[in-house]
Amino acid sequence: MEATTSSEAKVKVSSIFIYPIKSCRGISVPQAPLTPTGFRWDRQWLVVNSKGRAYTQRVEPKLALVAAELPSEAFLEGWEPTKDSYMVIKAPGMEALKICLSRPQGVADGVSVWEWSGSALDEGDEASKWFSDYLGKPSRLVRFNTESEARAVDPDYANGHNIMFSDRFPFLSLSQESMDALNKLLKEPIPVNRFRPNILVEGCEPFSEDLWTEIKIGKFSFQGVRLCSRCKVPTIDQETGIAGNEPTETLKNHRSDKVLRPNGKQQNRVYVGQHMVWKDYHIAGNEKTLKVGDPVLVLQKVSSADEAAA
Fold first, then answer.
1. Alpha-carbon dihedral of residues 8, 246, 191, 164, nearest 10 degrees?
2. What's the rounded Cα separation, in Å, for the pair 42 and 119?
């Protein structure tokens, strides 16, 4: 392990993104309350099919066009919803759908996403009809039930941490410099929304986040636990829902395990970003909010991506 270097001394948070509904459009916010399972409201909702299986952009790219709006005060420390607090969902050709942020009464059993299955809170028939009409197939909108369910991350990478409907881990970090470096390789630049990070940082070398095993953001400690292997989603234009070949084809030549991890097991994967967990959530004080502009201090890192967990 290595300590931070002078070139990493001025790293800061440049954007924070929340994705209230899994695989739907994200929200850029100036600050967000931290929870052990990720930012508050992040991937708290999920669209499922008639069998309770999760829909994602991999099979339903139209979800990229679904935007969820939350009240601005929802990102303030300690704010609690009332019966008059709503998430507003919009999509092309659809009337706006209002979802009350207070706990719904209905329960949906047999909900599953990847390796996890359990019960969730059902957002009701109006939401079901809206998503069924939009996707053209039976659908329901469910919310993670934090009171009855827990979904553990892979203990081989981060034992004792949980998530809601995220993939794998609570937080995903990426640097603007990595985006800039990738866009120099692409014929047509792409925006950061293709990679769906939670925390975008700036002020570091391209792809240096690969190496970070422990960082401090503001006063909070995070552990970098695994490089993020990328699926089909980054090839989907988040403004149109149409998939192409890039950036995956370019990533194969520059960010594959063959290139980054020649001494490791070859799994034909490409990597962008670093999964993280909030390390000191159990001892943090009353204020637990991350803000754009917060400084990022690299405490520990490995010397190459070949040494990083993936």
1. -80
2. 18
How many residues are given for the chain? 310
Global pTM reads 0.95
Instruction: Point out which residues pair with 35 in neighbouring strands.
Output: 38
Q: What is the DSSP letter of 270?
A: B
Q: 3-class SS at 31?
A: strand
DSSP label at residue 55: P
- Range list of β-strands (E), 123-257: 140-144, 151-152, 162-163, 171-175, 199-202, 212-217, 220-229
Q: What is the pLDDT of residues 95-145, one digit of tens each?
A: 999 999 998 889 999 999 999 999 999 999 999 999 999 999 999 999 999
Q: What residue has token string 């004792």?
A: 160
Which residues, other chains included, contact 118 with Cβ-Cβ below 8 Å and sequence gap of 6+? 111, 112, 145, 148, 149, 151
| Cα 3 from Cα 199, distance rounded (Å) | 21
User: In the numeric block, which tokens belong to residue 60?
Assistant: 């339903």
| Rounded CA separation 75/39 (Å) | 9
Which pLDDT tens digit goes with each residue over 48-86? 999 999 999 999 999 999 999 999 999 999 999 999 999
